Structures are given as structure tokens and as C-alpha cells.
Amino acid sequence: MKRLAMPLLALILLLLPLLLPNSYYYDLVIRMAINAVIVLGLNLLIGFAGQISLGHAGFFGIGAYASAVLPTHFGWHPLAAMAAGALATALLAALVAKPIFRLHGHYLAMATLGLGIIIAIVIRNEGMYTGGPDGMPVPPLEIFGYEISGERNWYWVFAANLLLSVWLCRNLMDSPFGRALRALHGSEVAAQVVGVDLARYKMAIFVFSAFFASIMGSLSAHYIGFVTPNVADFFHSIELVTMVVVGGMASVFGSLVGAVLLTALPQALVSFDGWETVAFGAILMLFMIFLPRGLVPTLAARFGRGE
Amino acid sequence: MAQFLQFLFSGVTVGAGYALAALGFTLIYNASNVINFAQGEFIMLGGVVMVIFIHAGLPLPVALALAIVLPAGVGILIEKLAIQPAKGADVVSLIIITIGASLLIRGLVQIWFGKGTHGLEPFSGHAPISVGGASLQPQSLWVLGVTALVVVALWLFFSRTVIGKAIRATSCNPLAAQLVGIDIQRVLLISYALSAALGAVGGILLTPLTMTSYDVGIMLGLKGFVAAVVGGLGSGLGAVIGGLLVGVIEAMSAGYLSSAYKDAVPFVLIFVILFFMPRGLMGAKVTERV
Q1: How far does A148 lie from chain B, in Å, by closest CA?
Q2: CB within 8 Å of B20: residues ≥ 6 apart
Q3: Same domain for A157 and A180?
Q4: pLDDT of A232-263, one tens digit each?
Q5: Domain that residue A301 falls in
Q6: Which domain-ending residue is among A201, A232, A263?
Q7: Are residues A59 and A200 in the same domain?
Q8: Closest by CA position to B80, among listed B196, B160, B169
Q9: Does any domain span residue A287?
Q10: Contact, A89 vs A211, CB < 8 A?
Q11: Where do runs of H (alpha helix) occur along B33-85?
């Protein structure tokens, strides 16, 4: 099963376009893929390091706005802008996390929440560059003279990204780094005793997951062609955390399931203004109380396979 | 000078509200080691419930009592329905549950109360009092006076009553507290009710000055948390000092630096604190035993 998982995912992604009747469904699947990649990174942080980030939308926002602002106002190549955004995000994450991971308790949750809010405030206030609350258009992504456009082309970009991320995460789990992470997940004290530098590993995951979020922010900004400050909002961060919780902590395929289910949910609730917040709140509480391990790990345990 | 005084007044007033929120965080943190992300919603609930009942024509004292008791009831419900069933869950799960609770409350209020912003008449008129060239709103005196009263009452509660001492014992060592016959469940329940009531009082007091809507809880709650961390998470006195400090720093930077970035100031502050004095101003030095 474990060996078949990757080819199976590849096959699904390859055949999926045959089932998608129109561009609305393409768009939905693309959004699922975007969220899935971010959630993969975030899940490493929540599932293995036992830390929550409530500011991942902020990192996503940095990536999105780097890809919007740098090419528009400074004439950068979109790929350079994307790289700059991701590097800046990683640097910022490292800077913020360094003092926090020396502390016990859940300072990271609040610190990232604060960071996300600061990022959103900056985006809203620097209207000269960012267009303020109204947002701004994003120039198209051009690679080797070829401009990516249309849902069908973008689908392959995001499908490839998703496959690459899953492959990366699974390999990461089997590397010495991953073993250290799993040790940390089992018992922090025991991990420390055998020489795992807790603070360093936690920081590495945090930076890694922020980097993921920024890249996806850039790509999705190019895909949609327009960014608004909403992408960096608190509620977006909460959506991402909910996906991790629903799919299953510390589970690669749980991340995918969570992203797919909860990206579809707002589409179903779109006509009920306000109920979206209620639904996400209720889902978070119910899952944590009754199904704290999330869907995929619980089902996997029930059918006796384990991930 | 008058300008400085003006900023100081507004800072101390808002800071008193943050202090009440910070006390709420401290209470639950001490009782269960959980940072309650729904704390801000209690502040919002206090203000919103007050607005609803005042507009419904209820006399001030009745509306006031309801606006404190109802949020306290919500606090009890959260503890009973969400925290207790998840007994034995790790801290991350409990935090996620409180995040869920805060979304649930905020969403329901948004549906029921709408997205609009609502104000409240000040308790004793608009006529400002002139102090050293700066004008002080009578409502500010209400905020400061009631906060001072609450702080004294809390101090008496924790040092003189059996329940208060039981809560303190639980925060020191839950297992030992249980062994001497303290009902931990009840302590938790009381902590949630009390911390919700504290938040609600803050919300009620601040609404005539700052208005309220369904989404004010996020910011107020966060700033209350910043105040608690600045003071040293877990310390009651620290929470009050932290609250006032955060309020004043915020007002000063809004006045002298940039009002657009006013809301960012407390969060920059939290990073400064976490970098240079991670235990806050009053925090105890803790060594964790394995």
C-alpha cells in the first residue's frame, strides 16, 4: 500500500482531467491542490512539532504580494520575484521562531497570529505599492517565453507541484531528519535524550512550511491574476489549520483529504453568509473532541494498516 | 504636555480593558495551562449583549447584570461541552478547541446581530473633564474605577475565600490539589465562568468609547494576550501592569508615530518581549521537571 500510494496519486492526477466537465471544476481542483501543498507543510509543524501556526495566511500573502508588487513596480522577472518572496518569508519565519522555540508553552500560536495580522495591516496600509484594501492585478507567469494561462494549463502546474510536494514530504519522513521528527513527535524528552536538538528541528519545520506557503501564494496569485489583502487574513489561516485537523495530524495523505474536503465545503456554504465561520468552528471542536487524530489516521487504524 | 496627557488618558483607559482580558487569560492558563483563544469573544459578547438589551429598553442595571451573566454562562458551556469531553487531550488539541469555540461564537453573533457597528451611551454623560489642558471622558473614569474594583475583589477572592484558594492550589499542582479533596472540574468551571465575566466587564465598559461589533473580539483578545505575556504569563499583578503598559504604548505610538499602524504595535511589542525577556515583567522562573 505504502509503495503504491505515490503511483496511485500520480494516476489519479493524470486521469482527473477526463472527469472534469468544465473550467469551474478545474478551478475547484486547482484550489484543492494549492491548499493541499500548504497543508502538507503546515501538517509537519502541527503534527510533528506539536506547534500551531495561526499566521500561515500571512506567509501565503507575502508570496502572493511579492509576485504582484516586484514585477509590476520594479520590473522583476516573475520567477525572481517568487524566489525573493519565498526567501524573505523563510528569513522572517526563522527570525520570529528563533526566540520562541526556546520557550515552552504555546507562544508560537499567538506570535504567528500577531505576525499574520501585522502582515495584513502592512498590505492594507501600503496602498502605493499594494493597492490597499482593493488589491492589485498580478502579471502573468512567463517561463522561457511561454506564458501559462487557462485553467487546463495551470492544472498541470499545480498537479506537478502537489506530486512533488507529496514525494518530498514522504522522503523527508524517511530521512534522518524525518526520524528525528518522529522521535520528537513520540516524546520530546526522549528525543532530546538521544541528541535531537528540539529547537533546531522545530524551527526547521516552521521555516520549511512557511516557505511552502509563500511559493503557493506566488503561484496562486499568478493563476488568479489578482490579489487582495484577504489572502493574508486570519480566517484563511484558520481554514488551513482546520484542514490539518480534519485530515489527520502527522499524516501525508490526511493533509490531502483535509484540503479536498474543506476546499469543497465553502462552495457548499456560499449562499449562507456567516455560517461559514460557524461551520469551521464547529468542525474544529467536534473533530478535536471526538476524532482527535483526524480522518485518515483513524480510518487507517480501524482497517489495521497504519500509515 | 497636554497632548501627552491626552494620549496617556486614552492609553490607560484602553489598557484597563486589556488588563481585564489579560486577567481572564491568566485565570484559565493557571487553572489548566491552556491559552483560551475564545477570551476575546467574551469581551465582544459583553458589549454586544449590553447593546441589545439597552436597545430593547431594559434598565441599565438589569442589562448590565445580563451582559455579565450571559457571557459567564457561555464560558461555563464551553468548559462543560467542549473542554471537559476532551479530557486528557494534549494542549495543542485544547487550544484548537478554544479556537473553534471562538469561531462558533463569532459566527453566531454575526448571523444574529449583523455585521454593523453599534455604540452605547456613556454611563454618566458626555461632558469631558478638563485635566491639565487635556480632556478626560467620564466613561474613562468608569473604566478605571471598575477595573480597580475588580482587581481588588479578585485579590480578596484569591487570598480570602476557600474557592479562591482551591483555584490557586490547582494551578500550583493539580494532582496534589485533588489529593486534598479539591474538585478540579469545579475549579475549571469556576475559572471559565470568572474569566468570561471579566472579559464581559471589559467589553461593557469599553463599548461606549470604542463601539462594538461581532468581530472586535479578535483584536481585543489578542491584545489582552499580549498584555498577559508582557506581564509574565500566569501572574495576576503582571496581567494588570501589562494591560496598562500595552494600552499606553499603543496610544503613544498612535499619537506620535503612526495611527495607521496602531494595531500592529502590540504585536511588535510581543516580539520584543519574547526576544529579550521571555518570562515577561513579573513571570516566575520555572524549571520544568520531567
Answers
A1: 37
A2: B43, B147, B150, B198, B199, B201, B202, B205, B224, B243
A3: yes
A4: 888 889 889 989 989 988 888 899 999 999 88
A5: 233-307
A6: A232
A7: yes
A8: B196
A9: yes
A10: yes
A11: 39-55, 60-78
Question: Given an 8 Å threshold on Cβ–Cβ distance, is B267 in contact with A189?
Answer: no
The helix or strand, by DSSP H or E, that contains position A143, with its residue range, turns out to be strand A142-143
Interface of B with A in 151-210 (CB under 8 A): none
> Which position has the higher pLDDT, A303 or B144?
B144
Sequence-ordered list of residues with C-beta below 8 angstroms from that of B72, at least 6 positions apart, any chain = B193, B194, B196, B197, B200
Cell triple for A68: 504582484
List CB contacts of A29: < 8 A, sequence separation 6 or more.
Answer: A16, A20, A155
pLDDT < 50: residue spans in chain A? 306-307
pLDDT digits (tens, 9 = 90+) for B106-132: 999 999 888 888 888 888 877 888 888
Q: What is the pLDDT of residue B284?
A: 59
User: How near does any CA of chain B get to the CA of A118, in Å?
Assistant: 5
Q: Do B96 and A114 touch (CB under 8 A)?
A: no
Q: Which three cell numbers stand for residue B280?
A: 515577561
- Grid cell of A229 as nine digits: 489583502
**A285:B261 CB<8 A:** no
Q: Where are the beta strands (DSSP E) in A144-281?
A: 146-147, 226-227
CA atoms within 13 A on the CB side of B137: 23
Cβ atoms of A242 and A262 within 8 Å: the answer is: yes
> Which grid coordinates belong to A288?
478535536
Alpha-carbon gap, residue B105 to A86, rounded angstroms: 35
List, in order of start, the domains of chain B with CATH numbers: 7-121+135-276 (1.10.3470.10)
Prediction ipTM score: 0.85
**3 state DSSP class of A140:** coil
Residue in A59, A66, A68 with CA at minimum distance from that of residue A83: A66
Residue where a domain terminates, one of A180, A210, A232: A232
